[in-house]
Amino acid sequence: MPKIILPDKSERVFKDPLSIDQLAADIGPGLAKSAVAGKISGERVDASELIIKDCEVEIIKADSEEGLEVIRHSCAHLLAH
């Protein structure tokens, strides 16, 4: 039953583990569309990463500086393949 603390210090409790994507969708459809990654307790993770325990979570959006870095990094891997 993870308790998630968001950057605005609001808390959300979920019955089951959920991904960053699922959390973004729970917060709102706009955030779900723009989420590209997240941070769990300060560690950057993929948007599909499961949140399984109590933690602080930040959702990284595509239009942020960090979001652009994630997109560029992913594209570099695709081009190198």
UniProtKB/TrEMBL annotation:
This is TGS domain-containing protein. One of its GO terms (biological process) is translation. The keyword Nucleotidyltransferase does not apply. InterPro entries: Beta-grasp_dom_sf (IPR012675), TGS (IPR004095), TGS-like (IPR012676). It comes from marine metagenome. One of its GO terms (molecular function) is ATP binding. Keywords: Aminoacyl-tRNA synthetase, ATP-binding, Cytoplasm, Ligase, Metal-binding, Nucleotide-binding, Protein biosynthesis, RNA-binding, tRNA-binding, Zinc. Residues 1-61 form the TGS domain.
